[in-house]
Amino acid sequence: MAKAQQPMNRVLIFAAAAEAATGLALLLVPSVVGRLLLGDELNGIAVVVARVAGIALISLGVACLPGRARAGMLTYGAAVTLYLAYLGSSGASSGVLLWPAVAVHAILTMLLVRASTSGGEKS
Fold this sequence. Notes:
Elements: H1 5-28, H2 30-38, H3 45-63, H4 71-90, H5 98-117
């Protein structure tokens, strides 16, 4: 592996693992994730939707392992950062982990962009 690829691969593996772990939590305990992230329990159809989202996050994590296209992780990171920030700013939802989640996603997105523009592997 070339030296320039190492920072990108480390950031990508961390971001993919974090998203896959969140997906696993959504799949196994969606109401707990809902309470911590959005400040309210998930009920009814929301649990089903959360579990489908969990599956999608696990899939995204797998798809973004080194050697795969990185556009999915960058798009997801930027979009979820904006959406979560919108939820918090609008007052629609706000759990204790909402703003930390916004910060983590913003940082990961910036690190992915930085690593890919500083000689990281091309998508």
